[in-house]
Amino acid sequence: MGRFLKTAVDALKVFILFTGFTALFYYAMIWVNQEYENYHRYDKPEGSAVKVVEMDQDEKGGWFDRLIFFYQNGE
Q: How far apart are CA 72 and CA 32, in angstroms?
């Protein structure tokens, strides 16, 4: 009977630890979600930002030339 009781207590400890860490992980994920919920990554930059890429519309050729360029240079 003593061995069964010790095993049951150990199983209860594992269950309590698992439940506690699961709840901790759940609330941590909620906290991270709330932190980044109002984070606007695509706002227009402020200050002296410089546009790096500008699509050149004067260039002759079409989607096929761009596809070949992609296959040759990778990306």
A: 41
